[in-house]
Amino acid sequence: MMRSLYSAVSGLKTHQTKMDVIGNNIANVNTTGFKSSSVLFSDVLYQTSANATGATATTGGTNTSQIGLGAKTSAIKTAITTQGASQTTNDPFDIMITGDSFFIVNNGQNNYFTRDGSFYVDGAGNLAMTSTGYNVMGWKVDPNDASAIKQDTVSALRVMTTENMTYPPEATKSARISGIIDKNDTNINAKAGKIMNLEFYDNQGYKYTAKLSVHSTTQDGSFTVQLDDILDSKGKTVLADKTKASLQQKGANLTDTFLEFNTTNGSFKNVGTAGGTESTLTLHFDTGTFPSFTDITIDFSKCSNLNNNGSSTVSPIRGDAKGNGAGRKVGEMSGIEIQKDGMIYANYDNGCSRLLGQIAVATFANASGLAKEGDNLYSATQNSGDFDGIGTDITTGGGYMNTGVLEMSNVDLSSEFTEMI
Q1: Model confidence pLDDT, tens digit, residues 223-239
Q2: What is the pTM of this model?
Q3: DSSP letter assigned to residue 58
Q4: SS (H, E, C) 306-373
Q5: d(CA 401, CA 403)
């Protein structure tokens, strides 16, 4: 009688454990990145009242007679590899991992692992976990190559510093002019010529406008290009009489012809003292007068002399055919973008971007062996193995990161209530 009571008690205790696990699953149905658990039962020791006997020539054998002594919890299994649904937040620092990897966070002493990708930028500019403030770990930019990541020891990702809040300016070095020159264009044949405004930057990020003009000549329908003026951002000329003389010495003569369009072979040719190749013009600036200016090479190779109903369409564009050498103003940070591989880029209002670092991830040979530490955190154990994802791109294993979404709990309420019943 007593034995049966104790066996029943062991079963009650075991089922109480299962109810505790189910209750915890239900309680965490809205916990970000939570992984549900399930209980496995097993029977315990048996009392043998009669051993098995073998068959004889006249009688059959008998089976072992055993009395069970109850049940026990054999294991609590976590569905750690089951992906939770996504929840859209539109917060650029909310990140969801698709795949088996974990974010790495640090409390100043130890590394922990989490699927909770709700992050923010703290007062020191570090990417941190919203719930705990723990630093998100990753790799920094290679000091020898600003476009590459140096994957060595992980460290806290500081994404906002005084240095990366702005992007340095760059002087314009290249420009191109393309379009049609029509000999019947009234502007081409006028005294002022066809006006073209080329905007450019100096090395301090200030914008200027070089006023160029195209003129028809009496030389068998040819055309010439000349520099008329240089204006600052307020429309005021930056050229004084002494400046004009200085420009003439450098080849940027305000009255001389720079380039002539040859109607026979359809190409431009230098006819003045300006530098450049057959189809280019280089504007030289006296560094004594314009210390912040850089010489600008202008490519005319895409211009053509065609009938366009009396209208010329030539216009200048900063930069070469690939956009290089266009120059830029000082850029203010306009946002931060986190790509699918964890690369973090800062975007600036001058059209540039800068690599700030890469979020590191960890994978485990047995992720189910991780120990739960609360606060959506896990720690490595002897049975999980050491994390082996460091130095490996998250996309190598088919995983990726999405921004503006979070991974929800993978708890299935219908299954939990069914198990409870």
Answers
A1: 778 788 889 999 998 87
A2: 0.78
A3: S
A4: CCCCCCCCCEEEECCCCCCCCCECCEEEEEEEECCCCEEEEEECCCCEEEEEEECEECCCCHHHCEEE
A5: 7
